[in-house]
Amino acid sequence: MNHPAASVPSEIVQSPLPRLKITEIFLSLQGEADTAGWLTVFVRLTGCPLRCTYCDTEYAFHGGQWRDIDDIVAEVLGHGVRHVCVTGGEPLAQKRCLLLLRQLCDAGLDVSLETSGALDIGGVDPRVSRVVDLKTPGSGEMARNRLQNLPLLTARDQLKFVLCGRGDYEWARDMVATHRLHERCMVLFSPSKSELTPRELADWIVADRLPVRFQMQLHKLLWNDEPGR
User: Fold this and answer.
1) Cys-Cys with 161: which of 81, 102, 154, 172 at CB 3.0–4.6 Å?
2) How many independent structural domains does the chain possess?
3) What pTM was estimated for this model as a whole?
């Protein structure tokens, strides 16, 4: 005797489209790393497991809106520019960030990822330029550094140190030398805006002839800490 098929709840049959929690998507100038100055679409994901002392995006820790990844990509493409930067918060704290990065690359965009370096970067699409922080003692989050990421860095990537003072500078200088980081990728030294003057940091780099790139955040010079700029 034939039995009718058991009904399956529609919410099980219809799996939702992959989504991410987004704080903001906006067009601006890239303010740092090797694409500084280029028109760039920023996709800022919500949430971060770190609490760095100098964080300038605390508004991205909470809130946000769930967005389908296809819709995010469509909005990025609608701006009509080549460069897109996925940032946070800590974007890799949302696992589907990897899918977003892949789809942005598939769309023909020049994609960069800004990440704290506390999470595994191994699954990131190799077409993405990874801008990885190495947290200094002054950040309050040095213990979160995932040093296993260092051997994964390539010439497409950049490693960034935000420095809060002379102690941070000496720590970062020693890390560069010990791990020969400058031979693996571009190394960026930035002054923490409220704790170290750009001139002090520049003078130290020159005196020590460090093989690193000094940078200041262009967007901070133009728009201070205004969200969405």
Assistant:
1) 172
2) 1
3) 0.88
